[in-house]
Amino acid sequence: MALLFLSALVVGAHASFDSTDNVQVSILKPTTQGSALTRGSSKEHHQTKHTLDGTKKEAACEVKLYEHHHESIDPELTGYSKILSGYGDFPLEDFKGTSSVKVSGAGCVAYGFTTANCSGDKGTGISFDTVSAPAHVTGVVSGSDALEQYWGCNDCVRCVRVEQAGTTPAPTQATAPTAQPTSAITDRPRKDTPTPPPTTEVLTLAPTAAPTVATCICTNGNAATDIACTENGGNICSSCNDGYFGTTCQLCTKCPANAAIKTACNGTADAVCQCVPGFAGSKEAVQKRHESACKPCTGKTHADVAGLSACKTCADGSKTFDGGLYSGIHCSISKCQLPSPPESAEIDADNCPCRKVLATKDRAETNCYPQSKDPTCKLKCKEGYTESANVAYTCTAVTGSAEAEFTGGSITCVEPTPTAAPSAAPTEVLCPVGSYPYHSGSHCCKELFDRDGAWITFESTTCYKENFIDCPAGAVDGGCKNDCDNSENKDCRLRLSGKVSPNCCPNGKIPYHAGSHCCGMTTNKGDKPLKFTDTGCKNDDYIDCPAGADDGLCKNTCSKA
């Protein structure tokens, strides 16, 4: 009897690793089916409870794992599936793609583990009475988003623990049954019949299974092997495919908006990003891929190189370009307010290098957009005044501001003292009809323009097409009288029979802006053919209409001889 009791203890002590049916005690051990799965098929993983009388009883819990969706969502998209029957720990081995779960059996709860032996925190379980969107079926959690809410991840479970109310997954030790002695049936005992010795039952334990070699997986590369695979079923990689990096081959991430790659993703490390020129942001925020990590440089700031954590400050008198190719990258010189000349002076357009903007009836041109750094602007005396002093104005930055202004200039214009009129010549000599006095009266030009296409004047030194004659009084300065340069006698040009009138633009220039100006280009500011109604001339290459800068003074069509 003592020997039988000892045998029962030995059996109970080894039940935790015995996977055979030889021992008739209460042992719980999941068995694994080792064959590969095919799509649409189920793989059962049973756990059997053995009773003392040697019969097997199926446990009440059943957990079915799906590669994709539960049948209630789409019966054609379930993918591979695996069935776990009973309760206890179930290593999933080659089944590594769980996205949906169904738990059946009153009181049954399933927990998912990312470890191959169900070690670690078991987290939130899926119960037989759980109802979850989108399936809304009792005991079913379907889809990656829903599964992550319970098991914390999708396609990452390597072991499942099944528990049932009123049971424990650990094996228990059963009490060996007491052997019942047998005896022959007689009227009375015979003294000469010997008593048989007690029967001893010898139990043989199955040998312990040899340890298995760990097998790793790697979805986006080559899985680790041998000693590099430290966890059976773990996602450990020895090398990655293009576009992935790290020991688990994560997807190389893209840079956030307004950033570019500084160092490319190389399989062992992710890409390093930096803000592009015109934008700035902290390296930490850029590497974390915050969408607003790289902020634009505006106002008085700029970023002329990539990778700046903060925008640079523009120099005084300048600010960043607002829009266009260089927006936020470079600083532009601010416009200067044109100096205000005294009554006797005016802006000297030839010595005030600004980008011209055509004045309109509603807007006078008072601003200068400098074409170079630290530009200057000079004044000139009006006609009838003599210049005695002239200091150029300089476009100077206003300290601490993005603005600039012309400062430091001056001009002094003196009205000339009237002089006695020269003695009149015995006779006044005029250029013949059809010609115009020029070259200080020494010659007469038969054209209205000089060699450069400008209106011929008394001070002009050349004549268009060299079409001139000497003054009838002689080719000397003052030989012919200047009778066409006074403002009251503009129509004297009309005496050039067959030539254009003051109401036409000079040779080589086209009337536009409704006839108030003449453009030296054939296109407008949009590089389209110049029209009479256009208000802009390419490169601002224009002059006033000779008859005045008013609409309609220059004709739309003129012919020149």
Secondary structure elements and their pairing?
Blueprint lengths: L1 H13 L27 E4 L2 E3 L5 E3 L3 E5 L14 E5 L2 E4 L8 E5 L3 E6 L12 E2 L12 E3 L1 H8 L7 E6 L56 E3 L13 E4 L3 E2 L4 E2 L7 E5 L8 E4 L3 E2 L2 H5 L7 E2 L4 E2 L9 E2 L4 E3 L10 E3 L2 E2 L7 E3 L6 E2 L11 E4 L5 E2 L1 E3 L4 E6 L1 E5 L6 E4 L2 E5 L21 E3 L4 E3 L22 E3 L39 E3 L4 E3 L22 E3 L17
Parallel strand pairs: 1-5, 24-32
Antiparallel strand pairs: 2-3, 4-5, 4-7, 6-11, 7-10, 8-9, 8-11, 12-13, 14-15, 16-17, 18-19, 20-21, 22-23, 24-27, 25-29, 26-27, 28-31, 30-33, 31-32, 34-35, 35-36, 37-38, 38-39
Total separate domains:
5
Shape: rod-shaped
* Helical proportion, percent range: under 10%
CATH-defined superfamily of the largest domain: Crystallins
Which fold name is given in CATH as the topology of the largest domain? Answer: Gamma-B Crystallin, domain 1
The biggest sheet amounts to: 6 strands, mixed
Q: How many strand segments?
A: 39
CATH class of the largest domain: Mainly Beta
Mean pLDDT: 75
Number of distinct helices = 3
Proportion in β-strands? 15-25%
Q: What Rg is obtained from the alpha carbons, in whole angstroms? A: 52 Å
